[in-house]
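Hi again,

Forgot to attach this to my earlier email, sorry! This is the prediction with zinc ion bound. I've pasted everything inline since the attachment limit keeps bouncing my files.
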Amino acid sequence: MKIAVLADIHSNLEALEAVLADAGGIKEIWCLGDIVGYGPNPNECCAIIKKKAKYCLAGNHDWGVVGKMRIDWFNSQAAAALKNNEKILNGENKAYLNSLPLKEKIGKILLVHASPRLPLTEYLFEDWRVQRAFESFSEKICFVGHTHLPAVFQKGERRIINPGSVGQPRDGDWRASYGVFDDKNLTFELRRVKYPIEKTQAKMVKLKISPFLIKRLALGK
Ligand code: ZN
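Structure tokens for the complex follow:
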């Protein structure tokens, strides 16, 4: 069966809608967390993921916005955008974010937001962190998000896979990133999708979200 794997949506409704349209007939959706933060549409993104995703993990922004993680852990722009999202979010969506788990095991697959060792906070940039991550789970494949960089790390038969970020890619390509996983053949396909970025940016301007965050969307950084 094919599964669309999404991460780091960050309140970017246009990117999320473009990804879901591209995923078309794929019935099952897994979300690796960070539905909110940075962007202008936290309620819409929460409602869509709540309705459509079979599994969704907690991300640091999801916990930050409901007060389960200290806001001073975030840099100043991220914190300001989080406070902005916090004001907009309705109670039902806050309750949903509050309920998201840190880990999800689905047979030989593990889902986390950041890393299996530190599921909310660790960035898998350095090689030693990736090696430690492999020691911290026993499943065959672990899906992670958090760095906003698409990646596949391999150790023997096992893999750590990052589908990149739907709502704020940082690999120099502004297009929304997600993956299609086949849980029978254990194959993974990375997909990039264009979306009306000006529309998202205009909403961010209206909400007085930091110009840095508005610009970085177009740079993919
Ligand atoms: Zn993120």
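Residues 76-88 form the longest helix (13 residues). The helical segments are 13-23, 42-52, 60-65, 76-88, 91-99, 127-135, 197-206, 211-219.

That should be everything now.

G.
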